[in-house]
Amino acid sequence: MKLLIISDIHGNADALRTLLNTIKDWDYIWVLGDLVDYGPEPHIVIDIVKELKPDLTLMGNHDYAVAYNTDCRCAPELHELSEYTRNNISLKLLSKEQKAWLKGLSLKHKTLMNGSRIYAVHGSPRNNLYGYLRPELSLDEIKLALTDKIYAVKPQLVDADYVVVGHTHIQMQISVDGLKVLNPGSVGQPRDGNPKASALLINLKTWELNWLRVDYDVESTVKKLSSLGLEIRYVKWLEAILKSGAVIK
Question: Which residues fall within 8 angstroms of residue 73, CB to CB, at 6 or more apart?
Answer without folding.
Answer: 61, 65, 129, 130
